[in-house]
Amino acid sequence: MPPTKFEMMAEQEKIEIKPYSKQELASLYKIGVRSMTTWLQPFEKAIGKRHGRYYNMKQVRYIFDKLGFPGD
User: Domain boundaries in the chain?
Assistant: First the structure.
């Protein structure tokens, strides 16, 4: 299967599409955890629940799609 747009961008930026915690995502976007929570709030239903502390790869792709790739 060919790489997705986000996987290609991740290769360029050296940011992996992998499970991330909310803290790690906030760090990628260079914001606080509270701000990340606010940014994700409109998409909570579509993103779904985290698995433990982590968003799975499908959820991370969705977050990058909605919020833009970190560093853009």
Answer: 5-67
